[in-house]
Amino acid sequence: MLHGLAVMSATYFLLQLGQDPAAKPPGKESGKDQAASAGKVDPDRKVSQKKTGRPGELTQEEEDKIDQIIREFIMHDLGVRPSQKAVDRLRDLGPEAIPALVRGINYSATLSHSCPVTVLASKLDGLIRTCEDPFVLSFIRTEIGAGLKRNKYAGLLTKLKVQTSLRATELQRLQQEAWKKDPNRSLGDSFGKPGNQDQ
Question: pTM of the full predicted structure?
Answer without folding.
Answer: 0.70
